[in-house]
Design goal:
The complex is a heterodimer of chains A (610) and B (451).
Chain A (H helix, E strand, L loop, with lengths): L4 E10 L2 E11 L4 E5 L6 H9 L6 E11 L5 E3 L5 H10 L1 E4 L3 H4 L6 H13 L3 H14 L5 H4 L9 H14 L4 E5 L7 H18 L2 E6 L2 H7 L2 E6 L2 E7 H6 L4 H8 L39 H5 L4 E3 L5 E3 L34 E14 L4 E16 L4 E5 L6 H8 L7 E6 L2 E2 L9 H6 E4 L13 H11 L6 H11 L16 H13 L5 E5 L7 H18 L2 E6 L2 H7 L2 E6 L2 E7 H6 L4 H10 L8
Parallel strand pairs in A: 3-8, 3-9, 6-7, 7-8, 15-20, 15-21, 18-19, 19-20
Antiparallel strand pairs in A: 1-2, 1-4, 4-5, 9-10, 10-12, 11-12, 13-14, 13-16, 16-17, 21-22
Helix pairs in contact in A: 4-5, 4-7, 5-7, 7-8, 8-21, 15-17, 16-17, 17-18
Chain B lengths: L1 E3 L2 H22 L1 H12 L1 H19 L3 E5 L13 E7 H5 L1 H5 L17 E2 L6 E2 L16 H31 L8 H21 L15 H37 L1 H16 L2 H18 L7 H19 L2 H15 L2 H8 L4 H38 L10 H12 L7 H28 L7
Antiparallel strand pairs in B: 1-2, 2-3, 4-5
Helix pairs in contact in B: 2-16, 3-7, 3-8, 3-16, 6-7, 8-9, 8-11, 8-12, 8-14, 8-16, 10-11, 12-14, 13-14, 14-15, 14-16, 15-16
Classes of the chains: A alpha/beta (610), B mainly alpha (451).
């Protein structure tokens, strides 16, 4: 079968840097090609270049993109006029974006938005367009499609919005679908539904798909071919089975190893040191060489070429160069040492939560009278001992973050009791809470929003000490904390914007540790980070627990991290805890139907790999 | 001679002192010094600051007020000196010729004759009468164009020479001490200003460079006098508006609940009253107070000054709502950010959170809207003068000039020079302030700075 899309030597330049450098791949009809890599590797930029939607600063400096439609006409996308290209976008090539919340127009009904596309590409108007829009919504699995037509985006949940977005994309009857992280913003269970639907639609319509993702689970489920991108280059291209059974490039191997898997419990996660090089780096040798554990002399000096492996796998790495085989010394890839993981002796619980309820009032009318309540947290109870980790698991909207804030009294609990070290916290106000502040602290989800951009790192870390009246030895303590979380002491005079996401999360952890708390409430601390950085942060949290004896209340929806880090697990659903117990027991033999769904959605990823 | 310190003078000097104090403080604080160094590095910032400083210098000269000593009347003791009723400023003294040499009525820039024909004294038809002062040295037959050209060239060369001299000195002695500073931008701007002032200085003694107005006053003199009024109205109004806008806006956004409701109701009510009406009522009240207490003021200038100040305060009190609403909205957004919640988790007090986490992050909005408002306020003064409730009729301001120009533009042939003069000066002032504020805002935003 001929290729639907073939990309040859595509390069994009921004300033002095090349976010996309010499990228080639092809997609056949009905096939999925997945571009895999961490953020900043140029995956999205590749897709935008194919669509010719590059940002103004970026310039296409070379390469051909050939699009061969089913009617037999082959077009060079880079040679089309802008008017022809506009017909191609949405008509020939459809695109789905990451954030369903912002890619739909909030003041137009779903039906109108789909009809607009139908009018534009198929010339359908009026009743036929409406009928077609309804069929499309049915096709993407939206229940009660007729009603959804007249609804506005804000009335739909995230998963429904993404489905509506897919329906809109399908309205132009594209033969190629570009999906840029289509499920990253969705919950696990919703994620798998949307992916299944996408796969089914692809089969029905024989569409080609370019899937952009950083999630190995998504790749395994969807892709036929996998391309791993690093620093603007494809470093490995392989059929899926081949890729998952024997990843060839060291970067691919590291990506697998960085996943917190059940097998690795108690061990340190293997991390990729360093980070993706900045855009304007001038590369001489292999781009991955500085972070590669198997690098040898030639790697830093000579850029590797493609080396074909059996079964259609291709790697851009010197390790597979027959001419260099002898130069390379045998690498000892010793498994990471197993950390001693002792269960601390049972003691009286550090944190004891009983029947905690948080109800948000619904106010209406001129005088803001309360007419009802939304039960965000509806009577949860658990206890947590010093030095142990309790994971609070659930989808977004199930009340787990609110529960965390209510424990810290950042949100006023409606009822119930929270005891920290035997002291009742509910009902305390203002200065009475000060002792609590020193004992329990919080690490937030988004490291980009949790640090004041106008304050220096030192001032940010010192804030807690200042607020709690610690005046002496503050600079020394800041230096000590920065070292403790793996940063340098001289970084205290810098501003947050100079740091990467992972470093910012380290700073946020240092800020929480500044007041020497016994309990750390971590609210999705790794969900905004890349896989390799996630592994670094998880390792750091693990080490800190070992050395400082911290107790963690770990709020997350990432089952893999839970599996790796938690001693106990509590599963929350609609404001209630539906299942709680020892991690092994809950994850191994889930009793509640919801837990089973959650686990099924999370662990359908590779087992034989890595 | 007796010095007179008007209230507005006192405030002006206080502001200057505060700025100087601020500079001294910034020099000692390494973080602030680094930010200001970025401003000094920016060519646009330095050029804007140089232009602004020229305006401030004019306003400063115009704020040194005094009363002239009258000639000793016979039979009066030496100790009992008599002083003139008119309050003059240092600028008046510099521009004494322009102030006193008034023509009969309109004359175009650099004209030698009046703008309108008049019946000749000998009864022989109508003709353009000769000006009393403008171009007097030419006599009746002199070639005006050649004379003007000669003087312009002389002034420009003089200005250029002064500029070059300055550049030489700066390169020799100042540059080695601070080579990061955008000396070139400063010197270019100063040279341009010097050339302009050189030309003006060469022409001013002999011509009305920007023409004369309806009652024959020199327009250039009026324009220069207006600078002080504009700066005072711009800064004092802003200063009296800022505390209310900042405090109420941030508190409303951060605290929410009934406090937010109360503040919202307050500014909605204030906003729904037509602004001019509210200002008119307040000013008329002030005027009544001023008029019923003539004993408070020893000269007309002091009364006019009191009126100017009350205008500033009243405009400030009625114009905080816009900024307040912007700040409330931004604070609502910031309040939900995690760094604010992190501070709450440490038990930091509400006031500290507002001062340390929210205020610095809304300063860019304050900066932009304050500079944008500056020109609006000067124009608002024109509107108020039109209604008859602006500054005192004896106070010279851009507002009164623009107000006069309204009638002049309807004349045939049109009298355009007062409006153009006011427009050009205001344009340069506001543009310089905008560019400078832009650079300052960027310099204080840590995200924009290279590490």
């Amino acid at each position: 079968m001929s290729n639907l899309l073939s990309v040859r030597n595509l390069s994009v330049q921004i300033g002095a840097g090349r976010p996309v450098d010499d990228v080639s791949f092809e997609i056949k009809p009905g096939e999925t090609f997945a571009l895999l890599g961490e953020s900043g590797c140029g995956k999205s930029m590749t897709a935008l270049a194919v669509m010719r939607l590059l940002p103004p600063a970026a310039r296409l400096i070379g390469g051909k993109v050939e699009y061969a439609a089913a009617d037999g006409a082959a077009r060079q996308l880079m040679a089309l006029t802008e008017a022809e290209m506009r017909r191609m976008r949405g008509g020939g090539i459809g695109m789905i974006f990451q954030e369903p919340g912002t890619s739909l127009n909030p003041v137009m009904s779903i039906g109108r938005q789909i009809e607009e596309v139908l009018d534009l590409h198929l010339g359908l108007r009026g009743e036929p367009a409406r009928r077609r829009a309804r069929e499309l919504l049915d096709a993407v699995g939206i229940p009660d499609a007729g009603r959804c037509l007249d609804e506005y985006p804000f009335q739909l949940s995230g998963g429904m919005k993404q489905r509506a977005m897919i329906a809109m994309t399908l309205a132009g009857e594209p033969e190629l679908l570009i999906a840029d992280e289509p499920t990253t913003a969705l919950d696990v269970t919703i994620q798998s539904q949307v992916l299944d639907r996408l796969k089914q639609l692809q089969r029905e319509r024989n569409m080609g798909m370019l899937l952009i993702t950083h999630d190995l689970g998504v790749v395994e489920r969807m892709a036929d071919h996998v391309g791993v991108m690093y620093a603007g280059q494809l470093v490995e291209v392989a059929p899926r089975e081949q890729f998952f059974s024997s990843p060839a490039h060291p970067y691919s191997k590291k990506l697998f190893a960085a996943l917190p898997e059940r097998a690795g419990r108690g061990q340190r996660l293997s991390t990729i040191p360093g980070r993706v090089p900045p855009l304007d780096t001038q590369h001489v040798g292999c781009r991955f060489a500085p972070r590669c554990s198997e690098a040898f002399a030639d790697c830093a000096a000579i850029a590797p070429g493609w080396h074909a492996q059996p079964a259609g796998q291709q790697v851009r790495c010197h390790l597979y160069d027959p001419a260099r085989m002898d130069m390379r010394q045998a690498e000892n890839t010793a498994p990471p040492a197993t950390a001693a993981h002792e269960t601390p002796p049972p003691a009286s619980p550090l944190l004891e939560v009983r029947d905690l309820k948080v109800h948000f009032p619904i106010r209406k009318g001129l005088l803001q009278r309360t007419v009802g309540h939304v039960p965000a947290v509806d009577g949860i109870s658990f206890s947590l001992q010093a030095g142990r980790t309790l994971a609070l698991v659930g989808e977004s909207g199930c009340g787990k973050t609110t529960a965390g804030k209510a424990i810290l009294q950042l949100v006023q609990p409606t009822a119930g009791s929270v005891q920290l070290g035997g002291v009742e916290l509910t009902g305390l106000a203002g200065s009475e809470l000060q002792p609590l502040r020193a004992q329990a602290q919080m690490v937030f989800q988004d490291p980009f929003a949790s640090l004041n951009p106008r304050m220096r790192i030192g001032a940010i870390i010192a804030e807690g000490m200042r607020a709690l009246g610690q005046r002496e030895g503050v600079p020394e303590r800041i230096a000590e904390l920065l070292e403790q979380v793996g940063l340098r002491a001289d970084m205290a005079t810098r501003y947050p914007h100079e740091f990467s996401g992972g470093q910012r999360q380290r700073i946020a952890i240092a800020r929480a540790l500044a007041v020497s708390p016994k309990l750390l409430i971590c609210d999705e601390p790794t969900s905004a980070l890349d896989v390799s950085v996630q592994a670094q942060i998880v390792n750091l949290l693990h080490d800190l627990q070992q050395t400082l004896g911290l107790a963690y209340l770990f709020i997350t929806h990432n089952m893999a991290v839970v599996d790796y880090l938690a001693d106990d697990v509590a599963v929350m659903y609609k404001g209630r805890i539906v299942e709680m117990g020892n991690a092994e027991q809950v994850l191994g033999h889930p009793q509640h139907a919801y837990t089973q769904t959650l686990l099924a959605a999370a662990f359908t990823r590779m087992r034989g790999a890595a | 001679m007796k010095f007179v310190l008007l209230w507005s003078d006192a405030l002006f000097f206080l502001l200057l002192a505060a700025c100087l104090g601020g500079i001294w403080w910034a020099r000692r604080n390494p973080q602030l010094a680094a930010a200001w160094r970025d401003v000094g590095r920016s060519r646009v910032g330095v050029a804007g600051a140089a232009v602004l400083l020229c305006f401030v210098a004019i306003a400063f000269l115009d704020s040194l007020h005094y009363r002239e000593r009258l000639p000793q009347a016979p039979g009066v003791a030496e100790a009992q000196a008599q002083f003139g009723i008119e309050v003059l400023s240092a600028l008046d003294a510099l521009l004494a010729k322009q102030k006193t040499q008034t023509e009969k009525t309109y004359s175009a820039p650099l004209a030698t004759h009046l703008f309108a024909k008049e019946s000749r004294s000998d009864g022989q038809g109508r003709d353009f009468p000769r000006l009393k002062f403008g171009g007097r040295h030419l006599g009746d037959a002199g070639d005006r164009d050649a004379d003007v050209f000669k003087r312009v060239a002389g002034g420009a060369v003089g200005g250029l020479a002064a500029g070059l001299l300055l550049a030489l000195v700066a390169r020799r002695y100042l540059r080695p001490r601070a080579d990061w500073f955008a000396w070139n931008a400063l010197l270019w701007t100063l040279t341009l200003i010097l050339i302009g002032s050189g030309i003006l200085a060469a022409l001013m003694p002999y011509y009305h460079v920007l023409g004369t107005d309806k009652v024959g006053q020199d327009v250039l003199y009026l324009t220069l006098k207006s600078v002080r009024t504009a700066l005072l109205i711009g800064t004092l109004t802003t200063l009296s508006m800022l505390p209310a806008a900042l405090l109420l806006g941030i508190v409303a956004g951060y605290r929410g609940g009934w406090i937010d409701d109360a503040i919202q109701y307050l500014y909605t009510v204030l906003n729904s009253i037509p602004g001019v009406l509210l200002i008119a009522a307040s000013i008329l009240m002030m005027q009544v107070v001023i008029d019923t207490h003539p004993e408070w003021f020893s000269t007309a200038a002091e009364r006019a000054d009191a009126r100017l100040l009350s205008l500033c305060v009243i405009m400030g009190v009625t114009s905080w709502t816009g900024l307040c609403r912007l700040l409330r909205a931004e604070t609502l957004k910031l309040r939900e950010l995690e760094y604010v919640q992190a501070a709450q988790a440490f038990g930091v007090s509400g006031f500290s959170i507002m001062a340390r986490h929210i205020l610095p992050n809304v300063m860019h909005i304050v900066m932009i809207s304050v500079v944008m408002d500056f020109s609006g306020l000067v124009l608002a003064e024109a509107v108020l003068s039109y209604v008859g409730i602006g500054v005192d009729p004896t106070t010279i301001s851009f507002g009164t000039m623009i107000n006069m120009a309204r009638m002049e533009l309807a004349r045939e042939p049109m009298v355009w020079w007062s409006l153009v003069a006011a427009f050009c000066f205001m344009f340069v002032l506001v543009l310089a302030a905008n560019l400078f504020a832009d650079v300052v805002r960027d310099a204080f935003d840590p995200r924009g700075r290279a590490s």
